[in-house]
Amino acid sequence: MAVSIYFGHLLGQYLDQKTGNASELYSKIFTLVAVFLSIFMVIRTVIKSNSD
């Protein structure tokens, strides 16, 4: 979970540097997307393990 969030943040930082974005918008967006995807995957795994 932490690794995917970290890579989302790194991708955002890369895009911010590439586009010259000083407000770090891409970094914030991709970090949040990675957090939501990680939470979704954990919830899906818990639901799947409970149904077995």
Automatic annotation (TrEMBL):
Organism: Fulvivirga imtechensis AK7
One matching Pfam family: ATPase_gene1
Transmembrane segments: 25-47
Name listed for the protein in its UniProt record: AtpZ/AtpI family protein
Keywords linked to the UniProt accession: Membrane, Transmembrane, Transmembrane helix
